[in-house]
Amino acid sequence: MLGTTRASRMARPTLSLTLLLSAALALSACGGAQQSGAAAIVDGKVIRDQDVQVVSSQLNAISQEGQKLSPDNAVLTLILAPYVLAEAKRLNKSVSEADARKVIAKVAKPAPSTVTFVQMQLALQGLDQASKAAIVQKLGKAKITVNPRYGTFDATQIAIIPTAPNWIKPQATSPAK
Asked: How far apart are the C-alpha atoms of 151 and 75, rounded to whole Å?
């Protein structure tokens, strides 16, 4: 091999091995069902972690004392939003973006996800039990994956259930001596 040094010949297998390991790690991350930066994936549509954080911080900035929005509740609302808003639209009970912005007027520049959050909350108040049951039925058929940092989605309870990280093992208490 003319023109190659021993160092460059050794670098090729190392580079190939590095690329192979990187690809394997990328493909196996979060079981392959989760995307980087995703708080949840609902039927292939990504709810970004950044949106969850923005909604939480913007709404917490204007909330009353003791009424803080947790990130897992923000994820849940953003998961429900398309279903609730579609049902409200079907019933001609849509909530406009302008109406949602009035509710959060204290937020200087609300993010689109914050406006959607508020629209969903307002629209949900106008739905009857039959509409809510229809939404629950649709949610039961949807493929919903939640980033483990927030928990898991339970379609029967319409809730995010916290999960303990699998690397934390419960420890048995030893009797006092």
From this structure: 10
Say how far apart CA 79 and CA 142 lie, in whole Å. Answer: 10
Exposure b/e, 45-64, CB count within 10 A at least 16 = b? ebbebebbebbbebbeeeee
Q: pLDDT tens across 137-146, in order?
A: 999 999 999 9
pLDDT beneath 70: ranges in the chain? 1-34, 65-66, 164-177
Q: Helix 71-90 to helix 112-125 angle, to the nearest 10 degrees?
A: 60
Sheet strands side by side (includes 45-48): 45-48, 38-42, 144-146
Most distant CA pair in the chain: distance in Å? 79
Question: How far does Cα 84 stand from its chain's mean position?
Answer: 17
At 125, phi and psi to the nearest 5?
Answer: -65, -25
Separation CA 56–CA 69 (nearest Å): 6
Closest of 139, 138, 115, 146 to residue 46, by C-alpha? 146
In sequence order, what are the residues at sequence separation of 6 or more whose Cβ sits closer than 8 angstroms to the Cβ of residue 168? none
Dihedral sign, Cα of residue 128, residue 131, residue 137, residue 139: negative
At residue 145, φ and ψ (nearest 5 deg) are -120, 130
Encoded tokens for 80: 């429900």
